[in-house]
């Protein structure tokens, strides 16, 4: 049997990104944004500003939906509005905050280092902006999207093609205005606003589709969980993919409001492939999105999380736990053995609040558990690195050494306490003397 061709790199599929907004749903969305933009140009201040802001936010939200769905491997369909993922409800506002932070930093640098240094910083921040946008779409977390380690990990994972991606996005970002200027002489003045809104939305969708595809192209390197892997993606070229057909049927059921049938379809797929991560992920997302399915969502999570932990998929597991928390804030793993590795995964991902939430009250929920000293040690690290509370951290470290002297955590607690002492002495040499 001949091997399947590898996924095409983004620079060989460039033309498809321009065709994507011309498919039915993206085209209707762009036309709607154009109509709103034209309406904004026909009303008076301040209503026109409000409408323009609404158009911008709506376009960005749709763009983030396109980015997220493309990054998950959905390359041959356009059902974005009905997709039950997070879809970026607040992502445009988080994007505005990121831009405001960048401009504020540049202004501060200009005040102390001059305009030229500020321009260098702006160029550098501009190179980071695509990575920030992609992280926002995947994590929906402002802090994580601007964390230098996460930004660097994404850029390093993509490698040199990331610079090409930045260049393409730069050209696309200026294409809307250039094309509008070329078309204005041939367009009635009353339609210029609508045309500008349509072109702005069109090129925005192209840019987000491009970023989503770049993430999908490197998802195995970046550790991104996708719905449609490379093998299934390329197999659809030669033959229909039953999973894709099932996904299309599920999307149709959701559009018709037949949520129970969509859930039954997802459960049927999972019954056929009980260990398949993508089938589990689809059912999980559907249960999270449909109101009234909280108990079913918790039941499925309780069955799926142990399998994820056993298979080393902690990053997927923490996403599942965070999704469950949106509906059940008091949720915690029923087995104590899963708490520490899950909390450690949260900690390694710099999601410190989630790690603290998991280990809170561990000794009361699981009295006498073997992981208790290690959980205390992780709590001390959270106090040091996240809350900057070294005083309380020292108390926790001392308790570990006192109550669990023979545990590996006690040795690490001693080392960590000595490190704190050395850092304190270095920061205040007079007191040390």
Automatic annotation (TrEMBL):
Statement: the UniProt record of this protein carries the keyword Phosphoprotein: no
Keywords: Membrane, Transmembrane, Transmembrane helix
Record bears the keyword ATP-binding: no
Gene3D superfamilies in UniProt: Tetratricopeptide repeat domain
Annotated transmembrane regions: 17-37, 43-64, 96-113, 119-139, 160-184, 190-210
InterPro entries linked to this entry: TPR-like_helical_dom_sf
Name listed for the protein in its UniProt record: Tetratricopeptide repeat-containing protein
Organism of provenance: Aromatoleum tolulyticum
Upper lineage: Bacteria, Pseudomonadati, Pseudomonadota, Betaproteobacteria, Rhodocyclales
């Amino acid at each position: 049997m001949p091997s399947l061709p590898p996924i095409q790199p983004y620079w060989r599929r460039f033309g498809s990104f321009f065709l994507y907004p011309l498919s039915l749903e993206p085209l209707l969305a762009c036309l709607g944004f154009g109509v709103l933009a034209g309406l904004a140009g026909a009303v008076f201040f301040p209503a026109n500003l409000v409408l323009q802001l609404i158009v911008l936010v709506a376009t960005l939200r749709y763009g983030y939906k396109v980015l997220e769905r493309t990054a998950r491997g959905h390359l041959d369909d356009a059902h974005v509005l009905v997709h039950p993922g997070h879809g970026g409800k607040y992502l445009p506002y988080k994007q505005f905050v990121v831009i405001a932070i960048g401009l504020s930093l540049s202004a501060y640098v200009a005040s102390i280092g001059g305009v030229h240094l500020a321009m260098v910083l702006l160029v550098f921040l501009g190179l980071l902006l695509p990575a920030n946008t992609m992280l926002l779409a995947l994590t929906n977390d402002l802090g994580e999207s601007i964390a230098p380690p996460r930004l660097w990990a994404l850029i390093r994972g993509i490698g040199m093609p990331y610079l090409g991606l930045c260049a393409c996005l730069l050209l696309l970002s200026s294409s809307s205005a250039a094309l509008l200027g070329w078309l204005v002489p041939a367009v009635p003045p009353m339609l210029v606003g609508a045309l500008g809104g349509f072109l702005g939305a069109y090129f925005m969708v192209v840019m987000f589709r491009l970023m989503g595809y770049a993430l999908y192209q490197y998802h195995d390197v970046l550790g991104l969980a996708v719905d449609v892997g490379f093998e299934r993606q390329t197999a659809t070229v030669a033959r229909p993919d039953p999973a894709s057909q099932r996904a299309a049927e599920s999307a149709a059921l959701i559009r018709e409001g037949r949520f129970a049938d969509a859930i039954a379809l997802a459960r049927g797929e999972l019954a056929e492939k009980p260990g398949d991560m993508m089938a589990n992920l689809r059912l999980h997302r559907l249960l999270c999105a449909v109101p009234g399915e909280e108990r079913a969502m918790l039941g499925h999570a309780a069955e799926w999380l142990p399998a994820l932990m056993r298979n080393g998929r902690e990053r997927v597991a923490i996403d599942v736990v965070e999704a469950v928390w949106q509906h059940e804030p008091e949720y915690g793993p029923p087995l104590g053995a899963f708490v520490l590795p899950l909390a450690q995964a949260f900690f390694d991902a710099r999601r410190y609040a989630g790690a603290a939430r998991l280990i809170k009250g561990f000794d009361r929920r699981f009295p006498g558990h073997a992981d208790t000293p290690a959980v205390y040690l992780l709590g001390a690290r959270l106090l040091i690195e996240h809350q900057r509370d070294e005083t309380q951290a020292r108390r926790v470290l001392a308790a570990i050494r006192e109550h669990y002297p023979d545990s590996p955590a006690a040795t690490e607690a001693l080392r960590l306490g000595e490190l704190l002492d050395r850092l304190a002495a270095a920061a205040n040499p007079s007191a040390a003397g």
